[in-house]
């Protein structure tokens, strides 16, 4: 019989193996099953009746959630998504989701995805409408205002029924003063509301803004409305490539035809950062009861252009534009860090369907051969997916346990040699012990 002293090292090794197995499998389980995010599929519940569907009608199905975050794996995380060794964030950021990105490289520098991203846009969706307008309508094209335009729930610029406006004038009024009457008039000019909404959503899809669904041209709440901080950054970045939009969004004041038909009235940009933040390039704010306060804006400093998005924020204790300014300062102060994600340059191409072939004893299907090529963790992940880590851990533990058994056998043989006087009995005992071990 082995003494307690001889069993102690073995027990310690086995205990260590147990702890390692617990740690490895626990970590693997944590990676394989991340904590679920709120509002992954749809924005938070509405607080009023604006998203109620008519009796007998079905609400729109939520947008499909991509299997992999389009901007990178880290943008699928919940909570703060920061680069390594990031400095302390500004205080008093009330937005439930925000994002800072480099407009030129597309690098996402930091983000907060507390509610998994999907929120309501409110009037920042007008950036998407403005981009469709800039793409399709000439600045000198005209639009005649109608009673339906004037009947929109305001904020309104004050169009006059029967008055004629240029697209340039309406685009300025749309992004500078957030006119819902203007949004309705431009949507009509794009072929009517259903046509305009289709064009907006088609453009969002083309850009890779897969969380975004416009339901109204103005951003007023309606069933199925959805976006994300990532999408708003994508949309604003793309819109700034259109000179008509970039010019309008940075303009601080223009003269606009008066609603009474006599003369003009000053139209002042409602984006405070234009006058308070050095290097501001323009932006767009919004508010509805369901969306709360939203904001997107951009600024330039030392040759860098950053875009910042805040969704579902509050004006207290700090104004949304001041929160945006603080996040812009934070982004400009970041050193050359590894991005936490990237603004894509377009939606990913749909995967081509492959024809499945039955494997033979001497060959595998083409798809299996292609996916099996790889080394290290990549090959293991391709072969086993989320269970690759645990399988690798089992293999490692097997090696450790084999070494423990080897040590035990060596001790048994040493004990048999010491009992040479009992050769026959020791040999029989050794044989039995070896078979047992």
UniProtKB/TrEMBL annotation:
Signal peptide location: 1-29
Keywords, sorted A to Z: Carboxypeptidase, Cell shape, Cell wall biogenesis/degradation, Hydrolase, Membrane, Peptidoglycan synthesis, Protease, Signal, Transmembrane, Transmembrane helix
GO BP, sorted A to Z: cell wall organization; peptidoglycan biosynthetic process; proteolysis; regulation of cell shape
One example GO MF annotation: serine-type D-Ala-D-Ala carboxypeptidase activity
Lyase found in the keyword field: no
InterPro entries: Beta-lactam/transpept-like, Peptidase_S11, Peptidase_S11_N
Record domain Peptidase S11 D-alanyl-D-alanine carboxypeptidase A N-terminal: where: 90-312
Active site, UniProt feature: 123, 126, 178
Domain of life: Bacteria
Transmembrane portions of the chain: 387-407
Positions annotated to bind substrate: 284
Region (Disordered), start-end ranges: 32-70, 349-372
Membership in a protein family: Belongs to the peptidase S11 family.
The protein's name: D-alanyl-D-alanine carboxypeptidase
Organism listed in the record: Saccharothrix algeriensis
Lineage of the organism: Bacteria, Bacillati, Actinomycetota, Actinomycetes, Pseudonocardiales
């Amino acid at each position: 019989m082995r003494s307690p002293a001889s069993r102690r090292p073995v027990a310690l090794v086995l205990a260590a193996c147990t702890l390692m197995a617990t740690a490895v499998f626990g970590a693997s389980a944590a990676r394989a099953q991340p904590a679920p995010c709120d509002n992954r599929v749809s924005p938070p519940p509405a607080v009023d009746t604006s998203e109620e569907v008519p009796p007998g009608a079905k609400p729109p199905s939520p947008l499909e959630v991509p299997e992999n975050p389009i901007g990178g794996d880290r943008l699928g995380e919940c909570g703060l998504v920061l680069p390594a060794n990031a400095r302390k964030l500004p205080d008093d950021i009330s937005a439930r989701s925000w994002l800072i990105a480099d407009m030129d490289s597309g690098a996402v520098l930091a983000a907060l995805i507390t509610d998994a991203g999907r929120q309501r846009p409110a009037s920042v969706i007008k950036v998407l409408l403005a981009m469709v307008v800039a793409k399709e309508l000439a600045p000198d094209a005209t639009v005649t205002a109608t009673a339906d335009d004037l009947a929109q729930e305001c904020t309104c610029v004050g169009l006059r029924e029967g008055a004629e406006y240029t697209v340039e004038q309406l685009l300025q009024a749309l992004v500078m003063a957030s006119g819902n009457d203007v949004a309705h008039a431009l949507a009509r000019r794009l072929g009517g509301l259903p046509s305009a909404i289709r064009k907006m959503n088609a453009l969002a899809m083309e850009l890779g803004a897969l969380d975004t669904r416009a339901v109204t041209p103005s951003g007023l709440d309606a069933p199925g409305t959805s976006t994300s901080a990532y999408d708003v950054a994508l949309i604003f970045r793309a819109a700034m490539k259109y000179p008509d939009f970039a010019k309008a969004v940075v303009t601080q004041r223009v003269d606009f035809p008066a609603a009474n038909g006599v003369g003009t009235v000053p139209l002042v940009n409602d984006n405070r950062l234009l006058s308070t933040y050095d290097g501001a390039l323009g932006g767009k704010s919004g508010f509805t009861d369901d969306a709360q306060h939203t904001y997107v804006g951009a600024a330039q400093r030392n040759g860098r252009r950053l875009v910042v998005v805040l969704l579902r924020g509050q004006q207290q204790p700090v104004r949304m534009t001041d929160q945006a300014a603080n996040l812009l300062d934070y982004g400009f102060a970041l050193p050359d860090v590894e991005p936490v994600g990237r603004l894509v340059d377009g939606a990913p191409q749909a995967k081509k369907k492959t024809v499945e072939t039955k494997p033979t004893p001497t060959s595998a299907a083409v798809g299996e051969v292609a996916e099996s090529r790889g080394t290290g963790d990549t090959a293991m992940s391709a072969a086993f997916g989320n269970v690759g880590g645990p399988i690798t851990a089992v293999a490692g533990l097997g090696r450790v346990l084999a070494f423990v058994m080897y040590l035990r056998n060596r001790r048994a043989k040493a004990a048999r040699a010491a009992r040479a006087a009992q050769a026959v009995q020791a040999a029989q005992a050794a044989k039995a012990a070896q078979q047992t071990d």
